[in-house]
## 1
Amino acid sequence: MTLTFIPAMGMFLVPDFLGGAKYMLVGNLIQQQFGTSRDWPFGAAVSLGLMLLTFIGIWVLRKTGGKEAVH
């Protein structure tokens, strides 16, 4: 799960190629803030938030022993 989750959060190139920019993903938002908008403080804040959410998810996964719930 971790090997697919982390790259998926930062992915911004594939949606642009496949479907245009119909949907705003976190990676697209970060790219837009650093690129065309030139709003580096907001882009850095979104990047930091994404990193914190990722680290919290990994921490929770490690605390639970990496066991996924089976129903």
Note: The first helix runs from residue 2 to 10.
## 2
Amino acid sequence: MNLSASDIYTLYRPSKCERRVFLCAHGEPEGEPSEFDKLIEELGRRHEANHLATFSKYLDLRDGNLPSRMSKTLEAIERGVEVIYQGVFQASLPNKGNRIIGIPDFLIKDGNGYKIRDCKLSRHVGEGRHEEIILQLELYGWLFERNLHNPPTALEVYLGDESIVQLPYNAGKSALETLEQIRELSQQSEEPYSPVGWSKCGSCGFRERCWTIAEEMNDVALVYELDQGTAIALKQKGVTTIEGLLRHYNKESLAELKKPRGNKMVRVGTTAERLLLQAEALTSGKEKLLAPLKLPIAEDMVMFDLEGLPPQFDELDKVYLWGMQVYGKRPGIFIPALAGFDAEGDREGWEEFLKNSETIFKEYGDIPFIHWHHYETTKVKSYVDRYGDRDGIAQRVLNNCVDLLKITRDALVLPEYSYSLKVVEKRAGFKRTMTEYGGDWSIVQYIRAVETHDANLRQQIMSDILRYNEEDLKATWAVLQWLKSKGEHSR
């Protein structure tokens, strides 16, 4: 069998999964890529093309079959061509005979040798992040050394923020160990176990397949907040189902269970009790109130929700919509703050948010700002660092922020696999009017709005995004009212 650098990505992206390697090797069909996945791919191509355009001269080796491209790559290096784009190397996996193929984005003349550079949308690599990038570059280095009998002068990554980071080279040791693992997984006759996870499986092409199987077998990995290491440790003890977890463990014995975490083995510890409560809720289908819900007490409250671009989509980690609406005894209208589409648009959106917040404070005083999870507070803090805090308005918002997810998780156990707003709002009986929605959907639509030159189309797209954000606020309010109905609460 042939192996390539892309096989490393199969193992690691969107998150590390041995099962995905097996399924790909055995021809299991993947689901169609989402519009979000397509957008990521397109942005990756643009990022690479933009970097290519910075070189005045280069040898383009994209065309032709692999043997021809490999031959031309070696010839070009021998001639000392300054920049080689999409060259090809191949070698055999030591002691196995499997052919390994690598296609680095750039080979760049560097003194008497060449450095290897690859383009990635990611903005950070190393320190436990994006191991797949490090392994891929390391494999390119090993292939270069096998073919040229000298190592590359450097391994570099051109990141999404246009910075260049140099990576260490250890003669391919880690990359070859990973390829050996991939080879063994690909040749197994039985599908390996790899726990499902809400975020782990989110954008994987096999998500629907694997989650269907997990639900049919009542896989213990479905328990909310039961991490991958705990699921693997339980599997090694013969416990694979939620019922098995409840049958074989109590909170004391589960707390003592050792699980892998990085290169260490650690105890499950104090999370054991909550995991068992979640397992009981999934088995019974019933909610369980653990303590009074510590909900804010106020006649009026601001529902607060942001829509933002992750770093790889923009020169900034940009919030393009700051959505707020007052609910309660004196309800207000939906007041969004939109980032503009020009160079100053990000700052303009922030300033509009501060203005809207100031208006709310003037009318309602120190009113609670209700949000779901910590994204909103994280972004407000980052924008204070970026643009400052006029008259302390942002700090006043932060002082009044209330994370409704934390309140829910601290006091209530739900028979759900996730506590995302989209899941909890359904338990609260909230029904959306839009058929397409979600964070990824919003990002795709916003990128479409940024890139179109059709003013009418842009207006329609932004109208849809505003409608989605407004429904997020309505959903947050509906969940808050539902939580209030669960019983007495205190501040």
Note: The chain has three domains: 2-187, 218-286, 300-484.
## 3
Amino acid sequence: MAKLTFKTDLCKGCGLCVEACPKKILKIAKDKINKKGHSPVEIIDQEQCIACAFCATMCPDCIITVER
């Protein structure tokens, strides 16, 4: 099973990873704010992740790690 981890304190909440995810299991958190004042990305359903790494490839700040 794949595992996604995020450096949420560095996330700008741009949403590029959310749009890139073919399984649509990422979202921008509406109830969290990081140290930079942005709403970070979060995963909705870890078990649905197929480890395609599209999200990590699209992230301009390289905050996503995909483990297989």
Note: DSSP finds two helices and four strands in the chain.
## 4
Amino acid sequence: MSTKRYAVIGHPIGHTMSPFIHKRLFDLAQIDAEYTKMDIAPEDLAQEYERTLKQLDGYNITIPHKQSIIPLLDSLDDKAALYGSVNTVSNAGGKSKGYTTDPDGFIKAIEAAGIALDGRIMILGCGGAARAIAYELALRNKPFEFAVRRQSVGKAGLLCLDVTRKVPDAEVSFGLIDQIIGNVDLLINATPVGMYPNVDEQPIHNCAIGRCKAVFDAIYNPLETALVKRAKANGSKAVGGMSMLVWQAVAAHEIWDGSQYDKDDIDRLCLDAAEELKKF
């Protein structure tokens, strides 16, 4: 049997955990495959799709191609079509199909951390990560709200309209990130605030963090952001984005080859990926 070929594409691709994580998953499933990274500039995407990407068995997609890849694909999974975003592509039978596994990674990460998806749920930010999580919450009939900076109010309003248009029963609202009041059962940081190298930054003030029962930070570098550290110091349940990154990769492998994984193996992979991250 020939070696299968996979990759992650983005621009700039820089340091990425994808090769480490996916190679481990292929090893666990005893599948002969290679996984590389490809830096593809936006203006070259269509050309590289025909010349290179169609020759792969599958690939993952990161910024800035999650939306621009869509017109090039032969079909979309229902969730990818709903979200308007693709992070995984399967090439099978000469046809390409796009999927989004980010929401699967989020749900699995929350479950693994023992965090309940109930009560008052607040998403910080309204970008790509926030969008994926928002649609998943809406589909699960979970009310939620966005908290954004003043300059993003217009974008947040449009996202709320889009969510309620596509999921008519969705309960969603938005407000300003510096005017959060009251207690929050689950705070989700979907902004880049606190990401390496700006590791001392927090998206909200300490007093607001103190009113959060649980915190999920989609950032995985650093492994524990200032937000996660502060929440833990307050006695709240808190988890960073590494678990989400690994679990969304697991979902990609389920699509590509139907592989199933033991939870203990994935827990170990999350720990090993954290150690690998320290080498960057």
Note: The radius of gyration is 19 Å.
